[in-house]
Amino acid sequence: MDHRIDMLQGTLDLLILRVVRTGALHGWGISKRISDLSRDALQVNQGSLYPALYRLEKKGFIEASWGISDEGRRAKFYEITSSGRKQLLAVENEWRRFSIAMELILTSA
Amino acid sequence: MSLTHWWHARALGQNAVRLEREMEEEMRFHMDMEAAYLVARGEAPAVARRRARIAFGGDERFKEDAREGRALRWLSDFRSDMVFALRSLRRSPAFTTVAVVALGIGIGANATVFALVDSVAFKQLPIKEPEKVLAVYATHGDVPLQHVSYPVFEEIRAQVSSFRDVAAFAEQSVSVTTNRVSNAVWGVYSSDNYFTLLGINAARGQLFRPADGRKRVAVISYAFWKRQFEGNPEIVGRSVTVDGAAFTVIGVAPKEFRGTRLLTYEPSIWLPLEIDGQVPPGVQSRPPAVRRASFNVLARLGDNVPIAQAQTEANEAARRISQTHPELLDDLRFTLLSNSAPINPWLTSRSRIELFGKLLVAGFCLVLLVACADVANLLLARMTVRRHEISIRLATGASGSRLFRQLLTESLVLASLGALAALPLAYIALKASVRLLPPLDFALPLQSSLDGRVLLFTLGVSALSAVAFGIAPLFQFWSGRLNPDEHSTARISGTSGARVRAALVVGQVAVSVVALVAAAFLSRGLSAARTIDLGFDVRNAIVFTVDPSLGAEHDAARIQEFYRLLETRLRAIDGVLSVTKTTSVPLDGDSRSIRTFSIDAGARASGVPADLFMVDENYFDTMGMSIVRGSSFSGSDTSDLEPVVVNGTLARRLWNGASPLGRVMTVGTRRGKRLKVVGVAASGMSRRLGDDPTPVLWRSVTSNPTSRLAVIVRTNGDTVRALALAAGAVRSIDPNIPVIGLRTLGQRVELAYSAVENGAVAGMLFGILAAILAAAGLFGTLAYNVAQRTREIGIRRALGADGLDIVRLIAGTGMRLTLFGIAVGLAVILFIPRTMTVLLYGVSPRDPFLIAMAAGGFLLIAAVATLGPALKALRIEPVEALRTD
Q: Does the complex come out with an ipTM higher than 0.90?
């Protein structure tokens, strides 16, 4: 818990698209998945999560629909769209290049 | 459903509500999941819930962010703008206080004046289709407007078919006796169709209807019902004695109905003009004389009848009436006036009153405008201080229009606070202004409360003022936003703006100095008035007015008998030295009772106006007035030349130093009764305090009997006993006769001082208000000045200027403006043409002492207003100042 990482601008969109790539998730599920996958290093602040979700929905990268959660409660599920998949690919590539560049600088300089 | 939800629902309809609900459900789901997750990891449920909420970062704040992409944004902003504005105003209490006080004064003054003017000039009568109701007056010879006599009213009713209905009424004071206590009230004798013509309904019981006119019935006003009968619900059917005759109360007029005439007394009771087919109604009351022109006539136009047609028809009727009654009414014409609002054409025309009202309201709007200018100055000063904050917010992505709205909201909040401060102020001012009227025998129908119209007006004025004072800072904001260079933001208002502001402050200072001089002048005049010799002794005497003709029986012999009995009973009271009666009491504030006639004493001196008093032979002794030549008239003078007493002033005017004793004169016309001067009394005050003594003529009331008289009782000092027993003496003779205005002579004369006193109080209040506004203007200008010169002051401090230098820099600007303003104000006072100034009881408005007081007083106020900004300048740190740019 003490090793949280501050997220860079724009990374949250990428993370969201990545975790919903494999199937529809509700908001809490998305935030849980992100912290699980990062072994709690990344904690998504809910105050940024939902605005990001609405933003992505507005851009047409994800789609929202009401369904029933595992616990039997009504919840809003988010699903990736085809244009979302394209966007994910593009952003992923960009991130990898950025990450490699960072790595190069941090190890060699 | 919370207020926020309600707001959104109203503004954006069901779709928005659905979105909002979904959002809320989603948030709740998230929090529940988080809490459940934490419980599963071993937290206590309550702790888990709290942590979930903390992790969430606050329900509402989050939703504000989440709304970003939605249309809800705009409205939710309004709420947060309000909160933001209130918080930011709370952070600068000095600014907020000065702004709210200035606005409160400006808006409050407007609300007060509007309330007063509205009831007199703007408001329509609370009747059905008021625009169709006309007042009919006669034009006869040279007299433009006259009441009409009853026969003429009947002719109008019979002959003018344009009028659907015609009613007549006459006003006079009547005596109403309930529970053996008689009160004089203002009464209206009206034709039986009066209320049906106006189209109003009773608050209780019923009003006169054309069929009821033959009975002894009465309608009372709402105020009279509350006052006299304590709002007793069983009022209908009760019997009251009016001028000695019994009447049955059939109803109570509506609360808002206060008669149809302007600036007359407010009627308390309506009585029928015709009883048992008889006009006047019976012997037992005192109806208006039928043949005398004492009737007001109201007419309601028929449907679709233009006024011009009614006027033509009325003119024809007038010609026919002149032909049939040539002895009374030659050259009769009728004037039709709209009576949709209360009128009183004798005072001045309706349109003049309206114009005057509008001018008055506009004048006070000017006061508000000055207050707005003060607040605009303050806001400008704030904007300069906040430009750093604003540029940061612009840089971090707040939209320009968003910030613009925020500033506008702040202006609206300020104006609302000003309006809130204004309402109690207006309430007090209204109550006070009604009390400033001299006490009259009957109430005037003046509005002294804040009704819906006044509140609406206040609301409108506040909103307008928010725009008026909010514009300057908004302009500054726009120009500052367009130019990212902060230096230009600081200089936007430029030198011409600064000059306008300086001129404004100088003007305000000048006005308040003039007002303060006027106030000091009036209060000095008041103390000077107290030293004036009245010419009679006000101490140890009591006075009251009676009218025995209001009693049960009232022929001339009975009236004489009443006064003889009254005198005997009053003299029997312990401590009473003498008793006298007079038609008028000098200086009693009701100068209408003193009549002025022109005196004719032969070819050399004619047409000298003199105040006429009818008094008995004890008058001069009882009043403590000295007869300087000759003697008073005795009670039993039977010569055909009526003996009279004149005062020294009249004697000088008529005979120019020659002995007046034995001279003969006439009153009114040369054919009038011949009067012989038997005595000369010392000149004193008659109508108003401080007049040069006016010519006065005293005739004998014994030779000229009158029913309504003031009785003056001189005591050896025990006025309390005399006051307690006087009313009983009247009642023991006839319980139906009311005792009017029972007071000590000193209290009665006190009214004469009230005009000066009210002037002094009003002048003082205006002076103080003007001074407060001027101080607010000075404060605002200096605060702005300090804000703009922060950098300069910082540099000065860095270069070694000490605190005194800085204070001198800012206070110097303030004092320069103040001194300049005082100079302008004094110049105004000195250059007022001498003919336009008045000497008030020997005090001149150019008295150097007064001027020094006013100027000194304002300097003190200015010093206080300067202190705040000067201290602020003193606190500027060199480093901080440099960093702001």
A: no
Question: B420 CB near a chain A CB, below 8 Å?
Answer: no
- Is A30 part of a structural domain of the chain? yes
Residue A4: inside a domain: no
Q: Which chain A residues have a beta carbon less than 8 Å from that of B32?
A: 73
Average pLDDT value for residue range B304-318 = 88
Cβ contact (<8 Å) for A51 and B37?
no
**In this structure, is residue A2 part of a structural domain?**
no
Q: What is the CATH number of the domain that holds A64?
A: 1.10.10.10
- pLDDT the model gives residue B838: 55
B66: nearest CA partner in chain A = A51
Residue A5 domain-assigned? no
**The pLDDT value given to residue B514:** 82
C-alpha distances out from residue B624 to B69, B534, B630, B750, B758, Å: 92, 11, 16, 18, 29
Residue B437 pLDDT grade (very low, low, confident, very high; cuts 50, 70, 90): low
The pLDDT tens digits of the residues spanning B450-497 come to 788 888 888 888 888 888 888 777 776 666 544 444 444 444 344 556
**What confidence score (pLDDT) does residue B12 get?**
47
Tell me the H-state helices in B265-349: 307-324
Residue B280 has pLDDT above 70, yes or no: no
Torsion from C-alpha of B829, B835, B840, B841, nearest 10 degrees:
130
| CB < 8 Å to A74, chain B | 25, 29
Smallest CA–CA separation between B804 and chain A, in Å? 52
Contact criterion met (CB below 8 Å) for B381 and B783: yes
Residue of A nearest to B29 (CA): A75
Directed axis angle between helix B400-435 and helix B350-395, to 10°?
Answer: 150
Domain tally for chain A? 1
Work out the minimum CA distance from B25 to partner chain A, whole angstroms: 8
Of the candidates B351, B359, B341, B340, the residue with the CA atom closest to the CA atom of residue B113: B359
Q: Please write the tens of the pLDDT for every residue from A68-80.
A: 888 888 889 999 9
Provide the token pair at B57: 């970062």
Domain residue spans of chain B = 3-71, 75-123+351-492, 130-340, 498-531+753-885, 541-752
Please tell me the distance in Å from B405's CA to the nearest CA on chain A.
24
Asked if pLDDT for residue B1 goes beyond 50, the answer is no
CA of B36 vs chain A CAs: smallest distance (Å) = 11
- CB-based contact (8 Å) between B65 and chain A? yes
The per-residue pLDDT for B635 is 57
Q: Measured between CB atoms, does B26 come within 8 Å of chain A?
A: yes
pLDDT in tens, B676-699: 889 999 888 887 776 678 888 899
By Cβ distance, the residue of B22, B25, B34 closest to A28 is B34
User: What is the residue range of A71's domain?
Assistant: 11-108
Mean pLDDT of B123-131: 83
Q: B836 versus A102: which is more confidently predicted?
A: A102
Sign of the dihedral defined by the CA atoms of residues A29, A35, A40, A42, in that order: negative
Q: Name B695's Cβ contacts closer than 8 Å, sequence gap at least 6.
A: B599, B608, B609, B610, B611, B646, B647, B649, B650, B653
Put simply, the answer to whether B29 touches A71 (Cβ < 8 Å) is: no
Interface list for B 702-761 with A (CB within 8 A): none
